[in-house]
Amino acid sequence: MKNYNLPKLLVVLILVSFGITRLGYSQTQVSPDKVQNLIGVYKNDIRGPYKDIRWFCTDGSVRQPKDPCPDNIGPGVQHARYKDEVVALGKSNHIYFGQILAYTTIDELWDANHNHSRLKQYQLDKYLRLVDDGWINQKGQFYRGSVQVEDEEAWGISFYKSILSQDAIIANNFYLIRQSLKDIPHNGDDNIAQLMRSESKVISDLYTPFMDLRTKIHSQPEKLDIQKVIDFKSKNQKLLTTDLNKKLDGLVSTMQVFFKPVDVQALLDKSKLIKGTSLGDKVQAFINSKEANDTASYSVNEAALLLVDIREELIAEKRPLARLQLLDISLKLEELLFQNAPNWEPTSVSGQLEKICALATASVGAGYLELWEWEQISGTLSKFNQDQLSLAELTQVLETARAAVEWSAAMVKANYQEVVNVYTAFEPKAYAFIDDRIRGSVALHLGQSVGELGDFIAKESALTNKVMDVANQSTFRGLNPGYAYGELVVVDGSSEDVEVSADKIYVFQRSPSDLKPVAGIATVAEGNMVSHVQLLARNLGIPNAALSDANLQSLKKYDGTRVFYAVSNKGNVILQPESQMTDQERGLFVKKERNTDKIEVPVEKIQLRNTDVLNMRDVDASDSGALCGPKAANLGQLKKMFPEQVVEGLVIPFGIFRDHMDQQMPGKNGSYWEYLNAMFVEAERMRSANVSEPEVENYQLRQLEILRAAIKKMPLKVDFMNQLESKFKSVLGSDFGKIPVFLRSDTNMEDLKEFTGAGLNLTLFNVLDKEKVLEGIKDVWASPYTERSFKWRQVYLLNPENVFPSILVIPSVDVDYSGVLITKGINSGNDKDLTVAFSRGAGGAVDGQSAETYTIYDSNGYRLLAPAREPMYNTLPATGGTGKKAATFQNRVVNEKNMTEIKTLAKTIRETLPKETNSEYEGAYDVELGFKEDKLWLFQIRPFVENKKALSSGYLESITPKINTEKEISLKTKL
């Protein structure tokens, strides 16, 4: 038996385990483990993912490989067919291996209904083949005739001719289309930059001593690196295998091609359709002027401007093939810029600012930043011609430039993260794809230049981070002040399944949406500053910082180390090993009595005898903590103040919950309420007996799990259900089960004077079906007893047993965009400014989405802090449940009219809410709101709670440098 028959046998076994037989395909999703097994089989199969080769004729007929299509039915194409299980995987999981373009329709590859997943998978497949010796085609890459290059190129031209004929597609997907040109064959070019990175990665994986050179080639490629690779090969010759010698020679050849001067003229000569057009003349003028002034700074500046011109004027050129030629020139200009950026070495602050501005401009032209975003920040980044700037002004330039780097990286993630996550589950090498794309972009050089400016400003302001021994420390920036001590855990990948511990410090790519208590956090994608996680961190004084991808990679070697972590009130960051802690820092963690700094849930005014479903119009702020929680009470108050901006609503008060908890608990001797209180009594007895706190907590969590399950099955009383039927009709104007509603948990533990409780309990979106509403009520009642909610409460509350949930029931509004308003400038530090964060669709900004965030200044104007980079958003269909739509970023979320309305709303809230509620509260408010067809809707208002202890800590004050922000710095100053 020949060797290649063995994989066929394995394939049969895997097919059976998949449920795929000759009779048909299973539509059940295939598990990642089984996909991984299948990949292993393909790697060892001489045909890879392909079954056989056929001729595909114009009339739709399929012929044997030695029987080409006859002339009388037109020309055909020859290529492989996919194995049956590959086809099945596409149907069950929407995963497509070994895609052959000539075997695919244009609409199939564009894959608009799945956010262009197949196109992105095609790109990811190409990357994996480069870094893993052909990947699933490891042996199949030699399967002759499976793919015909000339047919693939012809298909690529047809593809671009189709999609580039549609203005809306170009406007909505400029970045993705431009990136796809690097991978879809259409003009004989290859992605040399990616090939260079992948070849260096393969060598370092095989031979560890090459790692330093690989890092250099990945992060700061220069022509001098060619000689370094040659020298490395010579120095290590005795230890290199024949294969490694061959791979090093291949890398040298690739690098020589990459660093060969970019010939834009040759490409322009080939691009005959744009000769003599406005853009064609600009390209020719660039080429001519570059011959007269071939300095690196001139090339980068002028190439950046031309990139933007091409992007801005592309729509005006209506011929799709001319558009294709312009985009190819755009890619060539980016190559030229990539080559020249390392050679531009500014010596003064002015020169550094000019380089940063040019590279940010190039990022716009290459699609990493949107045109409207550039309008918001270009003024700040164009100050390099001034004589001097104050330290405050220069710091704002730095913050804006740093933001441009983050937004550029976020554009890559927003487009590819979803597909990368799917593939990483069965192919870990896929995870590096996003990093590879970022390193191949102008964002790489922009980030380095911004880091150098940050180092200069750090010295001038004494605002220096001290983060282990990692490079480019200026890219760390504090978000929430606080300090922590514990084991450092660095999570390089998805964080959703990470089991966190309250005594550890976590570094995430992106924090989990339902984060449990931790000692400290730092995130690459911090979401937004007003998400529930951020607000809880701010409330509890948990140190929280943002960092770059490169910073996270540098910290991986410290994973598992015990560290001290602090973020000052001004945002400088300290992260150091336990051994370097000072006596003062050790003193911060001397064991305190359990009740220190805890607060008590007020229960003296609670009214548990009221068991009527209430009209939200009949409650106001005075009922908070008495009849219901603050969500319902405050929204009832807002309904009085803004009747047209607040929906109608029902309130299920504390009393109804308490009444149901007095029922007999199945399988127990007493009621649900007695079971709950017995658990707290036993926990106190265990503490008195010196049982360790983790053991006590574990006992409580086990008991709460039993209680939670019982509440979810609890019978609802007939009188209560009858009231719901009646109130849905009289208050919400619809029969129960005919109008979709939100069910919002609303406990008496939320919005206390020193505890926000934001996002700890359950909110159910857009529930329509009557039975699901009734089930949802019990789910919401059970949610305060989840592990996450209980642990957060335990951190702060003296009497967590006295937590009562009410429920706010409001009709759904399918808003176009929604978010949060904080009536203070979190970023600016000015109590009179506003902070707003919005995302597209419903539930925006609160769950840590990458939200469009602004500071609206009290004086005038506003500043964009971050654009939205969330690829999908929630919709609320009238049929109930939630839908998902793909977002594009070419337009801003919040418009000027909205800004004006938000500012007016904030003014009214500040002036009238304390009077209307007879409150002495003088702090900021946290408001959830949305817009539907430009109409403002209000959904919640609560006090904005910060951790006063962290803000006023003597230690944090001591590490916060006193900065003279008015200090003038000459831009001629040497770096």
From TrEMBL:
Pathway noted in the entry: Carbohydrate biosynthesis; gluconeogenesis
Annotated keywords: ATP-binding, Kinase, Magnesium, Metal-binding, Nucleotide-binding, Pyruvate, Transferase
Role noted for this protein: Catalyzes the phosphorylation of pyruvate to phosphoenolpyruvate.
Cofactor needs: Mg(2+)
Name of this protein: Phosphoenolpyruvate synthase
Family, as annotated: Belongs to the PEP-utilizing enzyme family.
Domain Pyruvate phosphate dikinase AMP/ATP-binding positions: 627-949
EC number: 2.7.9.2
UniProt xrefs under Pfam families: PPDK_N
Catalyzed chemical reaction(s): pyruvate + ATP + H2O = phosphoenolpyruvate + AMP + phosphate + 2 H(+)
